[in-house]
Amino acid sequence: MKDDKKIIKGHLEIIAVDNEVFIHGNKEGLLSLSDLLIKIGNFDQEQCKDLPIGAKDHIHLSPNIQLSQNSSFTVIGRLDAKGTGKFHQNYIPRD
């Protein structure tokens, strides 16, 4: 997916504090984030010719561009790799 300044509408803040992540937004900001998550979840990586085997679709959200100025740089992406479906080696599934 292509990064786009307008991908998040409204106001959205994502900050990490003491090993916790806080996501806050107004109605429009939170709905834009939910739309983004649905797009990434539904994206057919297997049919994307620009994405190499083993890569994972993702998007960067940057402070003062898509997010509030005080937000943390955030990457939202797929866990499953194109062509293999494998997760990265540091992933620990929940019990």
Q: Would you mind describing this structure in some detail?
A:
- The chain is α+β, with helices and mostly antiparallel strands and 95 residues long.
- The protein has one domain (5-77).
- Helix content is 17%, strand content 21%.
- It has one helix and four strands.
- The protein has one helix at 27-42; strands at residues 12-17, 20-25, 58-61, 74-77.
- Strand 1 and strand 2 (20-25) form a beta hairpin.
Give a short summary of the structure.
The protein has 95 residues and is an alpha+beta fold. It contains 1 helix and 4 strands; from the N terminus they run E-E-H-E-E.
What brief labels describe this structure?
alpha+beta, 17% helix, globular, 95 residues
Q: What can be said about the biggest beta sheet?
A: 2 strands, antiparallel
How far apart are the first and last residues' alpha carbons, in Å? Answer: 31 Å
Strand order of the largest sheet: 1-2
Approximately how much helix is present in the residues? 10-25%
How much of the sequence lies in strands comes to: 15-25%
Spans of 5+ residues with little confidence (pLDDT < 50)? none
Structure summary, number of beta strands:
4
Oligomer: single chain
Helix-strand layout with pairing:
Layout lengths: L11 E6 L2 E6 L1 H16 L15 E4 L12 E4 L18
Antiparallel strand pairs: 1-2, 3-4
